[in-house]
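Onboarding guide, step 5: your first structure request.
Type a short instruction followed by the sequence, for example:

Predict the 3D structure of this protein.
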Amino acid sequence: MKISKFSDDLIGQLPLSRGRIEANVSLSKSTWFRVGGPAEVMFWPADLDDLIAFLQHKPDLVPVTMIGIGSNLMVRDGGIPGVVIRLGKLFEEVSISGMEIIAGGGLSNLRLANFARNSELSGFEFLCGIPGTVGGSIRMNAGAYGFEIKDILQRVIALDKKGNLIDLSVSELKYSYRHSDLKKDLIYIGGHFKGIPAAGIKIAERMTVIREEREFTQPVKMPTGGSTFVNPPGHKAWELIDAAGCRGLMRGGAVVSEKHCNFLINTGSASSADLEGLGEEVRRRVFEGCGVKLDWEIQRLGVGVQNISRELSA
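The system replies with structure tokens like these:
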């Protein structure tokens, strides 16, 4: 499929920055699915002050989209209009004070889990089984193996769309299962987490069990986006998908995993439209089979090729 590119005009409307700004940046290599169109503009802020200044001075009508390492993300084939922001190394800092760990929003969940293990603080082990970053996990209340971010999170530092710093307690995030009721345009730049003292060797043993279970039950070495659908109340999504006869179901280059049928896989030639269309077909079959509506857990961003409304350059 030929993916169109946005024009380069947007960069001229943006404020000067000490960070890096580029137009028409491919996002297919930035997501675990390995699909999707370009970012109209990509911005890598130099530091927190640079990000704040950018948000304060950019035109109000220019949309901003925040992405992490792309593990739970599907970028549509038409790409993402506006500015896509990725946090750099300076947002991956992690430190400890007593039993509290302070982690930057760009830090990977695995690195946070490893840091907690080395600091002999328990409660973070489940994060080694969740690909993604701290910021993304805070946004969606990521969880696995019986634990969720809300179980260890104390407070969050975020930015609103105008660059204002916001300090939020975990109760203000209004968490529910894989969901927060706060506005989606907040940028989570860091979190404070509290652990429980434990022997490092015991923590390491638990992390090993989690990693081995994940590798045994999930297609971790394939281009996938993790769990596709949220488990409905009282059900497991994979069981409903399996019962609806969707295991191994294909659409173009996309397939429902034979190993774990709540995972969609790019076999190598899939488009984002293939993957999203396959997911919608799974949702339809499950609803027709048992009356349960599956909700997407994977974040889908951008526009389809057929829906691009602005003038594009080849």
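Each response can be followed by summary notes, for example: The chain has three domains: 5-89, 91-216, 227-297.
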